[in-house]
Amino acid sequence: MTERIVVVAAALYDGDRLLAARRSAPPVLAGRWELPGGKVEEGESSEAALVRELREELGVEAEVVARIPGEWPLKSPYVLQAWTAHLVPTSPDPKPLQDHDELRWLAPGEIWDVNWLDQDVEAIRILERLRGAGS
Ligand SMILES: Nc1nc2c([nH]c(=O)n2[C@H]2C[C@H](O)[C@@H](COP(=O)(O)OP(=O)(O)OP(=O)(O)O)O2)c(=O)[nH]1
């Protein structure tokens, strides 16, 4: 069986605003926007990986809420999974410490104002649908 490595990404909300992060590397992805996160390490749960990545990349303390249904192929052997999350009340504000050079909190009408990575678009669409259904 071929190896399969999960990349976990966070739809991090502050109220109804969603955090988008602009990648600074590698060159092929730089300048495009994504849900922050990273690779799950061996023996690590997806939730623990997400909390760790958000701490490393943004300097925040986050709590994972729920998995967004679906899974999206990235460059083999990676697949993308996404989770909703929020900051714990004592968390510092996010800062682009690693992998990103800009962050934006997107209000509901601003979701498509950034140039999302192609592979993230379906996850963002699902989020928008879930949000629509919930409001
Ligand atoms: N974090 C994240 N990565 C994504 C998304 N969409 C997408 O194609 N990717 C790709 C970019 C990278 O090739 C890979 C994740 O790498 P990463 O650089 O964020 O993960 P990492 O921190 O664990 O990486 P590393 O520096 O330890 O190698 O998945 C997304 O929404 N979030």
TrEMBL record:
<dbReference type="InterPro" id="IPR000086">
    <property type="entry name" value="NUDIX_hydrolase_dom"/>
</dbReference>
<dbReference type="InterPro" id="IPR047127">
    <property type="entry name" value="MutT-like"/>
</dbReference>
<dbReference type="InterPro" id="IPR020084">
    <property type="entry name" value="NUDIX_hydrolase_CS"/>
</dbReference>
<dbReference type="InterPro" id="IPR020476">
    <property type="entry name" value="Nudix_hydrolase"/>
</dbReference>
<keyword id="KW-0234">DNA repair</keyword>
<keyword id="KW-0479">Metal-binding</keyword>
<keyword id="KW-0460">Magnesium</keyword>
<keyword id="KW-0515">Mutator protein</keyword>
<keyword id="KW-0378">Hydrolase</keyword>
<dbReference type="Pfam" id="PF00293">
    <property type="entry name" value="NUDIX"/>
</dbReference>
<protein>
    <recommendedName>
        <fullName>8-oxo-dGTP diphosphatase</fullName>
        <ecNumber>3.6.1.55</ecNumber>
    </recommendedName>
</protein>
<dbReference type="InterPro" id="IPR015797">
    <property type="entry name" value="NUDIX_hydrolase-like_dom_sf"/>
</dbReference>
<keyword id="KW-0227">DNA damage</keyword>
<comment type="similarity">
    <text>Belongs to the Nudix hydrolase family.</text>
</comment>
<feature type="domain" description="Nudix hydrolase">
    <location>
        <begin position="3"/>
        <end position="130"/>
    </location>
</feature>
<keyword id="KW-0235">DNA replication</keyword>
